[in-house]
Amino acid sequence: KQYEVAVIAGDGIGPEVMAEGLSILQTVEKLHGGLSFATRSYEWNCSYYLQHGRMMPADGLEQLRDHDVILLGAIGAPSVPDHVSVWELILPIRRAFQQYVNLRPAKLLKGLDSPLRYKGHEELDFVIVRENTEGEYSNMGGRLHSGTPYELAVQNNVFTRFGIERIVRYAMGLAESMGRKRVTAATKSNGINYSMPFWDEVVRDVHKEYPEVDLSLCHIDALAAYFISRPESFDVVVASNLFGDILTDLGAAIVGGLGLAPSGNINPEREYPSMFEPIHGSAPDIAGKNIANPIATIWSISMMMNHLGYRDLGKLILDAIEDVLVEGKVRTPDIGGRATTQELGNAINEKLLAH
Ligand code: NAI
Ligand code: MG
Predict the structure, then answer these.
(1) For the Isopropylmalate dehydrogenase-like domain, which residue ranges apply (predicted)?
(2) Residue 217 structural domain
């Protein structure tokens, strides 16, 4: 079976970590005869923007649509405002392709220490499900009275019953399929008095379809604190777009940092391509130094294999990452070593091949 893979390496460390990810894909082809990936690179990034005045061509989404999956490195450069690079490339892809699930595991890999380990949290393993198409990142609102003392900005939150139902159903179904019981829904219905009470209501309605799942609603401020004080108490956490964005970076931090954290932007109905990407950005502070950690990207490829239905291969990739971490010899600086991006990528590739 051949899969068409669109590759948007992006800016900064994006291309550096993507090179390691793509060599893992080649190794997967060697391991699994009959499986092949036809990759096609799209050079859409901030340099493209500076040349063309846009982040991707007018028919960019059309070009991507024909692929089975999309791999993204990272987007963003100091020369282009972040709201432009994100709103003109990443968010249009997520929305046009109904990638309404942003799936982000918070799992402490073998061989790594959590910054929380001193508290005895060795077994951190939960999943954050972030709503990815509506909510606080709405693109509705406006600015008025620029340049006057009365200048103001309004940004509307958009929550739909349809949007909340489908993300909560996904989270509940995921908990069931993982054999996990608990779903924690992030809320703030004590302070945000229209959208969040609505969110709570719909969450409770959907929960009625899943009587085996234990639901708790938890205010986002307290929930953030619980991520630190008792992270082992979570199985699946479901959150709106903004709350989920914040929680997932926190989730990444408690399991070892952004260099490790993968994500999938998933269209569960498979009507459109899903997109896999490391959570981190283009890291201008370390770009070009060849020290970026490729694990977040390689783990994202493991998630992509799971999505395509090759769970055994997805697991082999994650096992190879863990084997290298347990040996502890080859590590990039962010996880306490001195290896380069390629050295760590190669070490994982060798483990995978040797399997
Ligand atoms: P960032 O994730 O790029 O960097 C935050 C910190 O984590 C930096 O100190 C960086 O060196 C470190 N870091 C990130 N990835 C790493 C890796 N693989 N290995 C080792 N260290 C790593 O976030 P920041 O600095 O807020 O944003 C930089 C640019 O990236 C901005 O233009 C921002 O808009 C963009 N961005 C893009 C995202 C995307 O493409 N999905 C997501 C987040 C930010
Ligand atoms: Mg983020």
Answers:
(1) 4-348
(2) 113-254
